[in-house]
Design brief:
With 449 residues, this protein is mainly α. It has one domain. The chain contains 16 helices and 2 strands. It is globular.
Length: 449
């Protein structure tokens, strides 16, 4: 079977979910009586953002009724774990027909360890999701109830718990979580939920299994994948926090105010969560560029997060280090990495760069037209930020999302769709050959660098 068949089924299933979600958001009673009903363009954008767990919005969630918010939360939940479960179901149904290379591409996109079957990942994913979201709701409830009352507080706790774990970043209030920027408890719970959703279900399962095995097997070890994900995630969170503190200390009128909690939250949420406790548009330009880099990296394989993934970053850094030291193979934590993994990491980054470049060019054309740079440079960073946020399914914005034209919305919707499926899988789906080549061409070296 060609890679295109299961890949296209996955893409078509996801696209069908977006269309169905847009239809749901146009039902009567979705918006409050005092708010204007959603247009077809509004409904399609909000459904795409929810299914792709991005968090970009063209309408405030306060415009939605309780029924409308519940429908949006349903789409977030479907998008958050649906893409992972659907990929595993696809693997289970096509396991006898997929080639080794095709299976590797699915595994690289959605996460799988060799000793964990897709069926195990599927069942543990659902259980892990429900447990995390229920605990998150219970922990957030007291703080939200104290400010919004019992009914509204419980609903806010449930909504934000699901949205945070799924790395969607949708908030019920126009200022997102800025009102809670100094609430240590809410910040910590939301950050834990974001990290729990962004680590990847395989890593969580492997870590829990390792903790259990240690009781009977003293020399039990975590897999290399889990070690790399945990180490890279920790370094990115800590490094991002320190960089934001340093950069925003030079921005005395900015919203960070030298607060470590705000910097830490921004560092965690930048890698595809989309919640914010500071106004993104008021940050300095160097901070926005670092945010773009963190959004580009994203979370980990097999998680609710987007981006090129932490493992791709780790492999590329290790490859550069190996070449600089004259080592023939890429090495990470006393293990060599296969050439196939290095190739997939390079391919993921290259495809993501290509999508970002094309998306940014199209967004500039749709929103600013063709003109001299001197007249448009004030908007370039906003457009680049919006595209990277969409492709990485982060959902942070400098504030231009509601003002996008219909063609601009279409560009961002396509970026969100490609980003949620993964550029590498999307490319394989679109350009797959009907048959794999049964020959190898002569090899000849090129001069590089």
């Amino acid at each position: 079977m060609a890679m295109g068949t299961p890949g296209r089924l996955l893409a078509l299933g996801f696209a069908g979910g977006i269309v169905a979600g847009a239809w749901l958001l146009m039902l009567p009673g979705i918006t409050r009586a005092a708010a204007a009903p959603l247009s077809a363009s509004d409904a399609l954008f909000m459904a795409t953002s929810a299914i792709c767990v991005t968090g970009l919005g063209v309408r405030d969630l306060l415009d939605f009724s309780g029924f409308g918010q519940a429908m949006l939360l349903l789409l977030i939940q479907v998008g958050g774990i649906g893409i992972v479960t659907l990929s595993k179901l696809t693997l289970l149904r096509a396991s006898r027909q997929l080639g080794l290379g095709e299976r590797d591409l699915f595994d690289a996109s959605f996460g799988r360890l060799r000793y964990v079957s897709p069926r195990q990942v599927l069942s543990s994913t659902i259980a892990y999701t429900l447990v995390c979201e229920c605990f998150g709701c219970a922990l957030l409830a007291p703080s939200f109830i104290a400010r919004h009352g019992v009914a509204d507080g419980l609903w806010a706790a449930a909504f934000h718990s699901v949205s945070a774990f799924c790395n969607a970043g949708f908030g019920l209030w126009p200022d997102n979580l800025i009102a809670y920027q100094d609430d240590l408890w809410v910040n910590l719970v939301v950050m834990v939920l974001i990290v729990a959703g962004g680590l990847g279900f395989v890593v969580i399962g492997d870590t829990l299994s390792w903790l259990h095995r240690r009781r009977t097997v003293p020399n039990a070890r975590l897999s290399l994948h889990s070690k790399v994900v945990l180490l890279t995630t920790g370094c990115l969170i800590a490094g991002g926090c320190l960089i934001f503190l340093c950069l925003e200390s030079l921005n005395p009128t900015g919203p960070m105010a030298g607060d470590p909690l705000r910097a830490l939250f921004l560092s965690v949420t930048a890698r595809t969560a989309g919640y914010n406790t500071v106004a993104i548009g008021e940050l300095c330009s160097p901070t926005l560029l670092v945010l773009i880099l963190l959004m580009f990296i994203g979370g980990s394989p097999g998680s609710t997060a987007g981006g090129v993934k932490t493992t791709a970053l780790a492999v590329l850094v290790a490859t550069v280090r190996a070449r600089a030291r004259g080592r023939p193979e890429t090495e990470i934590l006393d293990r060599s990495v296969s050439a196939g993994a290095v190739g997939r990491a390079l391919g993921a980054v290259a495809m993501m760069v290509a999508v970002v470049m094309v998306g940014t060019v199209l967004l500039i054309i749709t929103e600013s037209g063709i003109g001299p740079h001197s007249a448009q440079r004030a908007h370039f960073l906003d457009h680049l930020f919006e595209v990277v946020s969409a492709v990485s399914t982060t959902g942070l914005s400098t504030g231009i999302t509601p003002r996008l034209s219909d063609p601009g919305r279409a560009v961002i919707e396509l970026c969100m769709f490609v980003g949620r499926l993964g550029p590498l899988l999307m490319a394989a789906t679109l350009f797959a050959h009907t048959r794999s080549a049964d020959y190898r061409l002569p090899r000849e070296d090129l001069i590089i660098g």
